[in-house]
Amino acid sequence: MSGARDETVAEALPTPPPIMGNVPGSYALSVFRERHPVLVRQVAEALPYSPDRRRALDRLLDEVVRDVMEPLEPSAHDAAAWAEWGRGKIGRPYVDVPFLWGESYFYRKVLEATGYFGDGPWRGIDPFGPMKQAELDGPDVDGELAALDETAALSPAERADALLLGSLWGNRADLSFGVTLTGDREKAADLVVDDRPLLWSLVEAAAPGRICLVADNAGRELLPDLVLADDLLACGLAGEVVLHVKPYPYFVSDATPADVLACLRRLAAAPGRAAEAGARLWDAMEEGRLTLRAHPFACAPLPYAEMPDDLRAEFASASLTVMKGDLNYRRLVGDRMWPASTPFAAVTAYFPGPVVALRTLKSDALVGVPERALAELDAPGRPWRTTGTHAMVQARP
Ligand SMILES: O=P(O)(O)OC[C@@]1(O)O[C@H](CO)[C@@H](O)[C@@H]1O
Fold first, then answer.
1. pLDDT in tens, 72-126
2. If you measure from the C-alpha of residue 237 to the centroid of ligand 1, how many angstroms do you get, rounded to a whole number?
3. What separation in angstroms does the CA of 46 have from each of 32, 149, 327?
4. ipTM above 0.90, yes or no
5. Residue among 163, 30, 161, 21 at smallest CA distance from 94
6. Which of 61, 81, 191, 218 allows an S-S link to 259, with CB 3.0 to 4.6 Å?
């Protein structure tokens, strides 16, 4: 696809309005009204915060319930950046600004309340750490890692595909490395779009390429992401995997460098093939074949179309960028009210290289689904766009 043609396609697309939180009955409104207050209470209970932090969390709860975005403390290291991004937004209700923006700001305010960037003892303490740790220690993970041993019976192509599906469904956070072909067929049936053939042709054509894997959640999603990265490196489909994570805690479970290390340790401590993968990944990090990035833009309230030049150059130099999860999908397509049949290639034409989205559907942003498929999905009258029951693999060369 030539760059010139991409721009023409992009220009031809009318840009729909952003998804907002102030639409009665919408998923976005429920996030602000129901999810955020609960989350603030959960964070407050997860650690023995000192009285000053508890008061700050109470104030945040009040802010969320009153629904007015208050400014960051002027002393915050990033106060100026947020004031600039938030021009015309701060002071308004969370629900009256674009959904992506309001949510992002809320997570920044959680870190302010818990003192994550402050000078006190809570500096650098992940407020979502206890939840992440509980997930990683949970009994399900043992079973999921043990199931990796079943991949020994598969051909390299079957194994790569099974691990890809494990990584994809890991985004639902109830992943399973159920790698039997029956399991794969069941999972494939819930794929709203399945561009796996294009994905693998891109990977193979560039092998051993440099693959950027833009991670989403820690724990039970990051483990299968790492296992997939290991397989790509081990079978020579990738010469280098660049794993992009968040520089600091975000959207509850988003992966940070500390979470990557926790997952590597979890793999190394497991029996069987999981431990072997963990050992290879450890070596790959030491040798620079698996590298970590934690770019500040990963926590910016902005779509990828507005990414800074250094990140653009990074993605441009990759043979493929894989975007994991719902939030990355929203940022990739701009979190707008696209008619769902709008072509994925047209919406992502701005992206500086081949790109694949691996995502379970957990919010309203949706493109690239043909009208007929939409009608079939809508027919039973059950929600499918925001429940995580369906997934998609969308690729653009
Ligand atoms: O990126 P993930 O983990 O797949 O999904 C994150 C997400 O579903 O959680 C939010 C609800 O708080 C949504 O706005 C958002 O898209």
1. 999 999 999 999 999 999 999 999 999 999 999 999 999 999 999 999 999 999 9
2. 30
3. 21, 35, 24
4. yes
5. 21
6. 218
CATH code for residues 27-127:
1.20.930
Q: Are 245 and 293 in contact (CB under 8 A)?
A: yes
CB 144 within 8 A of CB 175: yes
Domain residue limits, the chain: 27-127, 132-396
Q: Is the Cα torsion angle 329, 255, 141, 180 positive or negative in sign?
A: positive
Q: Measuring CA to CA, how many Å separate 368 from each of 5, 246, 268, 365? A: 18, 27, 39, 11
Which atom belonging to ligand 1 lies closest to the Cα atom of 325? 4
Contact, 239 vs 203, CB < 8 A? no
Q: Which two three-digit tokens encode residue 346?
A: 């047209």
Ligand 1 atom with least separation from CA of 327 = 1
pLDDT 10s digits, 197-232: 999 999 999 999 999 999 999 999 999 999 999 999
362 in contact with ligand 1, CB cutoff 6 A? yes
Tokens for 383, please give them.
């929600």
Buried b (16+ CB within 10 A) or exposed e, 41-69: eebbebeebeeebeebbeebbebbeebeb
Cβ(232)–Cβ(238) below 8 Å: yes
Q: Which CATH class is domain 132-396?
A: alpha beta
26 close to ligand 1 (CB < 6 Angstrom)? no
Q: State in Å: Cα 337 to ligand 1 middle.
A: 16
For the chain, the distance separating the N- and C-terminal CA atoms, rounded to the nearest angstrom, is 7
With a 6 Å cutoff on the Cβ, whether 33 touches ligand 1 is no
State how far the Cα of 215 lies from the Cα of 243, in Å rounded to an integer.
7
